[in-house]
Amino acid sequence: MKKIVALLLLAAMLTMSLCSCTVDMEDMGSIIPMVLADPQTDLDPTEMIYDKDFVKVSSLLYEGLTQVKDGKIEPAIAEAWEEKYNESRDEYFLYIDIFYSRWNDGRTLSADHFAYAWKRILSPETDSPAAALLYDIKNAREVKAGNMTIDDLGVAAVDSNTLEVQFEKPIDVELFLEAISSPALIPLRDDAVQGKEDVWSTNTNDISTNGKFSIKSMDPAGEYRLDFSKYYRLEKDPEDGYNVFVKPYQLVTDFAKYKTSEEAVAAFDNGEIYYVGTFTTETYAAKEKEIKSSDTLSSYTYFFNCENDVLSDAKVRKALSSALNREEIAKIIGMGSKAAAGFVSDVATGATMKASFRKEAGDLYKTAGDVEGAKALLKEAGVTSGDFAITYREDRAYEQKVAEYAKGVWETLGFKVDLKGVSGESYESALYGGKFDVIALDYQALSTNAYSALAPFAPSYSGSVVEVTVDSVGTAKHVTGFESEAYTNLLNEVLDLTTRKDRAKKLVEVEKLLGDECPAAALVFYAHNYLASSELKGLETSPYGHTIFTEAKLKDYAEKNAAYQAAQDAE
Predict the structure, then answer these.
(1) Is 117 within 8 Å of 153 (Cβ atoms)?
(2) Among 269, 277, 370, residue whose Cα is nearest residue 53
(3) CA 487 to CA 141: how far, in whole Å?
(4) Distance (Å, rounded) from C-alpha 66 to C-alpha 178?
(5) How many CB atoms are closer than 10 A to CB 372?
(6) Which one of 160, 221, 263, 390 is most buried, by most CB atoms within 10 A?
(7) Which CATH architecture has domain 295-527?
(8) Helices (H), 497-544
(9) What sign has the CA pseudo-torsion 155, 202, 215, 234?
(10) CA gap 229, 170 in Å, rounded
């Protein structure tokens, strides 16, 4: 039996701090006026994969069992974990003890809430690419395919504080602990979600969160406000000091005042706000020397509709990808972005938690482009013409510029390319409904492991809604319509392997095949960028591409809080 015990020292320190500290209840912490990210209108974590800004908000509201920090797995809500092997029944288990915590309404967090959330993701009725992150769990794939019921899944709450996970076979538990650090695998409460599927994640009155902050308002044309959760990790009465764990009191954005990145940067320069986390190509260039940047798991990507007549041949798709100069696209987008040398980001882990998958795999793309190679591929395919369109979000100026660039390149290959700038529901309908030829999107890997970025393209790993009928096949294609038996078989081989090193080596083969089949092409890897005042200290950055504000503190915040409140009262 192998036992891993985590966070014991920290738990002891926190207990001591609760017992010994005296908190001034008039001192609630800093109010930090800011522009955190582009406004989000839906905070369901199953939606996060196609918006790089989603995690900037959701990460403050929810907390999962583990986290990745400095190349290591660290506890978050998990307090300790233990592996067990039942030799008589040849069964493999992981028991995860959960740190005492509460939801933003004061209700106690339970192991049942993780079990419910994971079962929801693995339900045939749910559309979530995060399903593949849970496929090491016993019967997970069969449950998602509709061949077994959710009660057959190897996840159960042993008691209110202990989650039992049963695996198909022995695995490197570090791989699973890394997978569940995903922002998509946070807990949910059945009473807050069931019967409210269409509204629970869009209405601040219905959103139950377990993280360090609680959302109080989310008006994309008005105030966006997050308050620290006064119940976070508290066993005792809040009046004993509920700002022990989270220093800032409020993170607040007024989108009515700061409608554009230019207005946000101007307000920052004037001292009105202390943090800016969203930029245009132009505002980034103007403030580049002051901006803090870090690599992320997110890429700007083109999806190809594999069921489109012009794009149905993999050689055509690969030719279109190969012809693009990703270094030029990185210049167009700017904002610290880097030409993508492969589909999987530089941040993704490899044979060890501190190894880079990208370095291990080598370059998948020629970042400077290869027009002659593209022409050769098209000649092999017997395709030298055809009509298709690029769909992109019209509210981002750089997306139109990239689409115009791609159109120019692809038309030199003989194609006729139309541009479709759309927004809001029209964009979501096109993306999720597969109603596109080529579509631009943010692609967020759901875990630091390369597997999470690659797996969803196989039908049985896509996490898409599965129609459960007598005649159904138990799988659903990725939104690109991509289907390859060879690709699926490679992923099956990945899950058959039990060590991180072996899986990382096999994932190199998976990425190479994805590059050859090319249902999607990463163009650039995004950077996480922010401007922070010299008066704002204690910020940290996550590999998922968001800022951690837990220890944030604004200099002379009592006076600044008073001035902010006075200005609010005067309006």
Answers:
(1) no
(2) 277
(3) 16
(4) 7
(5) 10
(6) 390
(7) Roll (3.10)
(8) 500-517
(9) negative
(10) 38
DSSP 107: P
Q: What is the largest CA-CA distance in the chain?
A: 76
Q: Which residue has the higher pLDDT, 32 or 239?
A: 32
Residues in the chain: 571
Does the structure show a pLDDT above 50 at 43? yes
Among 90-94, 195-199, 294-298, 472-476, the least confident range: 472-476
Residue 492: CB partners within 8 Å, gap ≥ 6?
Answer: none
> Cα(43)–Cα(133) distance, rounded to whole angstroms?
20
CA distance 218 to 253: 9
CA distance 218 to 451: 33
pLDDT score at 234: 72
**Domain boundaries of the chain, sorted by first residue:** 3-278+552-570, 295-527
pTM attached to this predicted model: 0.92
CA 111/CA 81 separation, integer angstroms: 13
The token duo for 386 is: 């055809």
- Mean predicted confidence (pLDDT) in 510-525: 98
Q: Answer whether residue 23 shows pLDDT above 50.
A: no
Lookup result for tokens 């390149």? 409
Amino acid at 546: H
* CATH number assigned to the domain with residue range 3-278+552-570, chosen from the 4 options 3.40.50.720, 3.30.870.10, 3.90.76.10, 3.40.50.150: 3.90.76.10
Phi-psi bin for 29: left (phi > 0), alpha (psi -120 to 50), beta?
Answer: left
Token duo for residue 127: 């559309």
